[in-house]
Structures are given as structure tokens and as C-alpha cells.
Specification:
167 residues; alpha+beta; Nuclear Transport Factor 2, Chain: A; 3 helices
């Protein structure tokens, strides 16, 4: 039988997880300040193991240079709902933690949001591993995130400009 180490997130677990939640709530509410508050300036997102509509994605480097313009321009034109769950925090040092979690993300055209059945939508689930660092007191931010596709369902055409994130 395998043995597992108990997660050692400690009292910092909530602010560590909050760094991640700020990112996805910022996306879902189209709130640039909230979205950027969760990242370090030199943040990286590795989407190379993610496929959207059969198209492999890329790596993004730097919050202002790459992440904000590509992610928010890509996601901005349509509605999203990111359900972030199954957190596991492994605190590596007083100022560094590695967090694994799952996201189920739904995407739809804004005009379709009030319809009882979404005519075109795309739902996907990814596993994420994020390196989160303490930047000041209780404030933590994501320095690096690696994503891996688990499954997808629906019409990726709703995503429109896949070329913004494509490899």
C-alpha cells in the first residue's frame, strides 16, 4: 500500500490558494486588476500540454508582455466559468509552495448566456501545478503554472481566436 505525506500547507494555505482563485475570478469577471494581482511580474504559464479543439497551445512568459495581452484578449469576447477545485498545497519553504488543482472551465458566447440551453459551448478540464511565492507578508502570487489537458466537450469554435494561444 502506498503511503502519502500529509499536505503541509500550514496556516499559509488559504492565502496561497487565494493567489490562484484571484486569477480565475479575474478572468470570469473580466477584472484586469484582480487577474494580475495573482501573478508575479515574471510569471510563466506553460500550456504546451493543453489542446483546445485539437490545437496545441503555447508557453507564455511575463505578466505584462505575454500573459495579459494573450489570455485576456483571448477570453475577453466570451463568457467563462472556471470551477477551481481539488487543491493540494505542498509548502516547500516559508516563501514557496507548489499547488496542484483541477479546473473545469465552461466557455460560451455572451449573447447565449440567458438561453436555457447553450447552443454552442466548450467545456474542458485541466490539471494544474502552480509554483506560488510569498511576495509580502501574507500576500502570495503565482510564479509559474503548468497545465495538462484531461478532457474536453463541445465545439471549440466558440473559442474563436485560438491562434492567440496556439503553439
Amino acid at each position: 500500500m502506498a503511503s502519502f505525506k500529509i499536505s503541509n500547507g500550514g496556516s499559509d494555505q488559504e492565502p496561497i490558494i487565494d493567489a490562484i482563485l484571484r486569477l480565475y475570478l479575474g478572468i470570469d469577471t473580466n477584472n484586469l486588476d484582480l487577474f494580475t494581482s495573482g501573478f508575479t511580474e515574471d510569471a510563466e504559464i506553460d500550456l504546451s500540454n493543453v489542446s483546445m479543439g485539437g490545437q496545441p497551445m503555447t508557453k507564455l512568459q511575463g505578466l505584462r508582455e505575454d500573459i495579459v495581452p494573450k489570455v485576456l484578449n483571448f477570453l475577453g469576447p466570451f463568457g467563462t466559468s472556471h470551477s477551481v477545485t481539488n487543491f493540494r498545497v505542498d509548502k516547500q519553504s516559508p516563501d514557496l509552495a507548489v499547488v496542484t488543482y483541477i479546473i473545469v472551465a465552461q466557455h460560451w458566447r455572451p449573447d447565449d448566456a440567458s438561453k436555457p440551453v447553450l447552443p454552442i459551448h466548450y467545456t474542458m478540464s485541466n490539471r494544474y501545478t502552480s509554483t506560488v511565492v510569498r511576495v509580502d507578508g501574507d500576500l502570495w502570487k503565482v510564479k509559474k503554472t503548468v497545465a495538462e489537458s484531461l478532457w474536453a466537450l463541445g465545439d471549440a469554435a466558440v473559442l474563436g481566436r485560438l491562434d492567440l494561444l496556439a503553439n
